[in-house]
Amino acid sequence: KNEVEQSPQNLTAQEGEFITINCSYSVGISALHWLQQHPGGGIVSLFMLSSGKKKHGRLIATINIQEKHSSLHITASHPRDSAVYICAVEGNTDKLIFGTGTRLQVFP
Amino acid sequence: EAGVAQSPRYKIIEKRQSVAFWCNPISGHATLYWYQQILGQGPKLLIQFQNNGVVDDSQLPKDRFSAERLKGVDSTLKIQPAKLEDSAVYLCASSFGLTWGEQFFGPGTRLTVL
């Protein structure tokens, strides 16, 4: 079993829909990252959080430390949001442990 | 602020050939990471540098992979000789802190081994 599990693996949505991507982890962490990877390989860091909730534009990330769970929400989704969203956690060794990603496609 | 630079962006080689990738991190970032990302998987850490010293290279296949970060700035990752299973995107990232902190990723180098 992977230390970081994401669901769903694949997600399709119509433009304007509210999207939720989930991440569960089994190790103790100091921080959790949400990353966005577009075709071509480049990765952009969206959020780094260790508690509570963060918001940036249409993106919201939450984390529940007790339940070892985080969610990434996208409001009013748009085709340009189509990408792979990766959850990664910083464990006690300061190494990032990555999930396998959620592939999102938003259709107009 | 300039981001993490990598070159080349794409490389196609035949198995048993050698290849090298270059990374220039964000200015002032002490920590540099090389990741290997095979299609459909999350990135896997190959090596982590702190300034010009190696912090973690436990997942680096040392019989064929090598990396260096001379002067604690730029870094090169070399594969010699390449195997088919080395086909992947090689991502470089850097962070300011020496322990935990936000990592900034480069665009990656997509390697295809034929």
Explained architecture:
The complex is a heterodimer of chains A (108) and B (114). Helix content of chain A is 0%, strand content 59%. With 108 residues, chain A is mainly β. In chain A, strand 7 (59-64) and strand 8 (69-74) form a beta hairpin. The N and C termini of chain A lie far apart (36 Å). The model of chain A has no long low-confidence stretch (mean pLDDT 91). Chain B is mainly beta and 114 residues long. Chain B is 0% helix and 48% strand. Chain B is globular and about 40 Å long. The model of chain B has no long low-confidence stretch (mean pLDDT 90). The interface between A and B is medium-sized, with 23 and 25 residues.
User: Helix coverage percent of residues of chain B?
Assistant: under 10%
- Beta percentage of chain B is over 45%
What is the chain-wise order of helices and strands of chain B?
Answer: EEEEEEEEEEE
Coarse morphology of chain A: globular
The quaternary structure here is heterodimer
End-to-end CA span of chain A: 36 Å
The assigned structural class of chain B equals mainly beta
Q: Over the alpha carbons, how many angstroms does the gyration radius of chain B reach?
A: 13 Å
Radius of gyration of chain A: 13 Å
Shape of chain B: globular
Number of helices of chain B: 0
Kindly name the structural category of chain A: mainly beta
Number of helices of chain A: 0
Largest sheet descriptor of chain B: 7 strands, mixed
Largest sheet of chain A: 6 strands, mixed
Q: Ranges of chain B with pLDDT <50 over ≥5 residues? A: none
